[in-house]
Amino acid sequence: MSDKISILIADDNDVFREGLKVVVQSQPDFVLAGEADNPHNAVEKTIATQPDVVIMDFRQGSGIEACREIVKNIQWCKVIMLTSWADDEMVIESIVAGASGYVLKQIDRLGLVDAIRMVYAGKAVLDPEITPKVIAWIKSLVQNETKKQEPLTLQGTKTTKL
After folding, report:
1. Which of 52, 80, 141, 160 is geometrically suited to a Cys-Cys bond with 101, CB 3.0 to 4.6 A?
2. Is pLDDT at 159 greater than 50 in this prediction?
3. Contact 130, 91 (CB under 8 A)
4. Any idea what the CATH number is for the domain that residue 75 is in?
5. What whole-number distance in Å separates Cα of residue 54 and Cα of residue 96?
6. How far apart are CA 118 and CA 124, in angstroms?
7. How far apart, in whole angstroms, are the C-alpha atoms of residue 100 and residue 77?
8. Domain hosting residue 36, numbered range
9. What domain count does the chain have?
10. By C-alpha distance, which of 19, 53, 51 is closest to 125?
């Protein structure tokens, strides 16, 4: 493994990709593995270059599918969804698809650099605006699971002991 974190940038906006390249190339411990302008290319280039981290944004769920494919094919690769969308469904679907991070494009340069280093180190990163949504989702899962389980009554206990 290299002493540098290799990063693939995947975004459909070329101006934004160029800005991300400047951020990546400004860090002595980062190296640019490549870039992609659509989800299909993101998957292909990730498989070809085997980066440590993919920074990705594509709308309408196509980025989520690309994330799923990347994580399935390269288990050690970490995906950060860097997007303008704080939509509950996209956040949850991205996490379920295997994203290690979900941050909004309002993040500053140092915040993004820290997020890359954190996911590379095996940690998860969520934008502070996203965190309450994820907590609410987890609570709803627990509440739904609790509702499915019937409480054990004294009568049920007697039957179970027999």
Report:
1. 80
2. no
3. yes
4. 3.40.50.2300
5. 16
6. 7
7. 9
8. 5-128
9. 1
10. 53
Look at residue 137 and tell me if it is in a domain. no
Answer for the pair 12, 58: CB distance below 8 angstroms, yes or no: yes
Q: What is the torsion angle, in degrees rounded to the nearest 10, for the CA atoms of residue 26, residue 91, residue 54 and residue 40?
A: -130
DSSP strand pairing (5-11 vs 30-36): parallel
8 Å CB contact between 46 and 71:
no
Per DSSP, the three-state class of 48 is helix
Q: Which residue has the higher pLDDT, 141 or 122?
A: 122
Instruction: Flag whether 142 is in a domain.
Output: no
**Cβ within 8 Å of residue 74, ≥6 positions away:** 46, 47, 50
pLDDT for residue 162: 47
CA atoms within 13 A on the CB side of 158: 3
Q: Per the domain annotation, does 27 fall within a domain?
A: yes
Judged against a pLDDT cut of 90, whether residue 99 lies above it is answered with yes
> Does 157 reside within a domain?
no
CA–CA–CA angle 56, 59, 60 (5° rounding): 130
CB 56 within 8 A of CB 11: yes
Q: Name the DSSP class of 3.
A: S
Q: Tell me, what's the pLDDT at 146? A: 75
Mean pLDDT score across all residues of the chain: 87
